[in-house]
Amino acid sequence: MRKNAIRRSFRYVQKLSAPPDRVFPLLCPTREYEWIGLWSCDLIYSDSGFAEIGCIFRTDFRSDPGPEVWVVSTYEKNEAIGFTRTSEDYVVLHTITLIDGGDEGTDAVTDMVYTALTEKGEDFICSLTSEAFEEEQSTLEKLLNHYLLHESMLRSIEDSEMECED
After folding, report:
1. What domain of life does the native source organism fall in (predicted)?
2. Residue 119: left (phi > 0), alpha (psi -120 to 50), or beta?
3. Can you name the residues that pair with 106 across neighbouring β-strands?
């Protein structure tokens, strides 16, 4: 019997140029198509068609060892959203907490906790680096800030890590 699986945690704070009530609705599998050019998901269940508690969707990004199923597990409007992301080989607890900075905008604190379920999951989690996590989050920060300022998608940043398998 296994005692404790391999687990790694990452945190990044995005500085966003809008208040939480403008940021929060965009943290949604349906709305991310508006600001992330390479976003792709299969919406499996949602009463509203948008993020809500119990919303379920699937992704299959090139940087992941296989598809993930995401479940919205926390939904506190304009404050926090949490996802439990499952794959065959690992689980990710993924939360985004919004902190209202008034005229300074919003700090979006992204926490991800990866836990291995298999040896393949252990290998994947051990391959993750803080630098790669920070680069991905920085790219998302630029994309979201551009959308918040211009209400259009920034198409000049290409993040091959976000590309999906077809």
Report:
1. Bacteria
2. alpha
3. 16, 100
Residue by residue, DSSP assigns 104-139 as G-EEEEEEEEEEESSHHHHHHHHH--HHHHHHHHHH
Nearest to 45 by CA among 58, 61, 60, 32: 58
Structure-token pair, residue 95: 């939360």
What are 52-73's pLDDT values in tens digits?
A: 999 999 999 988 889 999 999 9
Domain ranges of the chain: 7-162
Distance CA 99, CA 97 (A): 7
Q: Per the confidence metrics, is the pTM higher than 0.85? A: yes
CATH code for the structural domain at 7-162: 3.30.530.20
Closest CA to 113 of 5, 31, 41: 5
- Going from the C-alpha of 3 to that of each of 6, 16, 93, 117, 147, the distances in angstroms are 10, 40, 19, 12, 45
CA dihedral 72, 44, 132, 120 (to 10 degrees): 100
What pLDDT digit, counting tens, does each position of 92-150 carry?
999 999 999 999 999 999 999 999 999 999 999 999 999 999 999 999 999 999 999 99
CB atoms within 10 A of CB 26: 18
What 8-state DSSP symbol labels residue 47? Answer: S
